[in-house]
Amino acid sequence: MPYDESVPPTRRRRTPTAAAVLATVCLLGAAGCGTGEAGGEGSGAAAGPGPGGSASATPPPSAAASSPAAHTSPPKAPPRKAASASAPPPSGPLSGRTVVIDPGHNPDNHLHTREINRQVDIGTTRKECDTTGTSTNSGYAEARFTLDVAHRLRTLLRAQGAKVVLTYDDDRAFGPCVDERARIGNQARADAVVSVHADGSAVGNRGFHVIVPGPVRGGAADTSKIVAPSRDLGTRIAGLFVRATGSAPSNYIGGNTGLDTRKDLGGLNLSTVPKVFIECGNMRDPKDAALLTSAGWRQKAAQGIADGIGSFLRG
Question: For residue range 241-255, what is the model confidence (pLDDT) as tens digits?
């Protein structure tokens, strides 16, 4: 679920038309179709992390408590690294290219509601710093899903020689805010940025969709230079995500094209480099949830996104 989104009502499922079927076939080709406008989006309600996906579980006892020499202070664990930039391999098809991966939300956002509810400027208006994200009915948090897919995606892209930066790597108590997420991609001068999410819609609403920026100009927001390349990036990811995962485009957003254009997301509005969001599935639908909670499927999802990014960067 997009992290800077006010939750609109869920839309009803749409019956695929002949045009929709052709659009899906077009997605399978990936590179060279999808230049028209996409439809609107409906997203489900956010929910805090629950059992099985939350980082808020009670930590294990410390070494001092379990050791016979309890009076001796245990060695301190090394601090976790901040936003992760990688040293790419010396060669590969993506050598010299920089990709920023933006794992949506933070599993501990629900412990910092005052901080994440703080309003930030997204150019055209102000919105919450971040949100909690959603979860499956069994409690697997979207924030855990997004970080897992981001790690798999980073490994795949590094193997092709890309420099990879994560906006967040389980290294902070909450956030980052949506404006900072956009700023990280801008400052990295990324060739492509992908924000990884999962939706929280109604049961029966299934499939993935890729959110691309619409034309926005106001305050700090000006997407005029990134609308076209971002749509190309999104179209390639959508088509190759189908091929890698076998998942169909969303049956409730985007008219079965797998693409949705948005003008209200700070992460897109404030970006100066090509950027898209991908909602990999609906965590509240049992069938989609079974995929999202499968490590094997998450690897396929990462592969589909990596294939789309690689296709975009190679031209």
Answer: 999 999 999 999 999
* Nearest partner of 165 among 179, 148, 153, 176, judged by Cα: 153
- 279 among known catalytic residues: yes
* β-pair type (119-121, 126-128): antiparallel
DSSP state of 110: G
Specify whether the CB–CB gap between 37 and 139 falls below 8 A: no
Contact 120, 179 (CB under 8 A): yes
Q: Which of 65, 94, 48, 36 is nearest to 212 (CA)?
A: 36
* Residue 163 bridge partners (DSSP): 98
Cα–Cα nearest to 96, from 237, 190, 184, 226: 190
The pTM score is: 0.75
Q: pLDDT tens across 123-182, in order?
A: 999 999 999 999 999 999 999 999 999 999 999 999 999 999 999 999 999 999 999 999
pLDDT in tens, 82-91: 444 555 455 8
Residue of 5, 128, 180, 279 with catalytic role: 279
> Average pLDDT over the chain, rounded to whole?
81
Residues with Cβ < 8 Å from 57, sequence gap 6 or more? 51
**Close Cβ partners of 285 (under 8 Å, ≥ 6 residues apart):** 201, 202, 203, 204, 205, 206
- Sign of the C-alpha dihedral computed for residues 224, 242, 189 and 33 taken in this order: negative
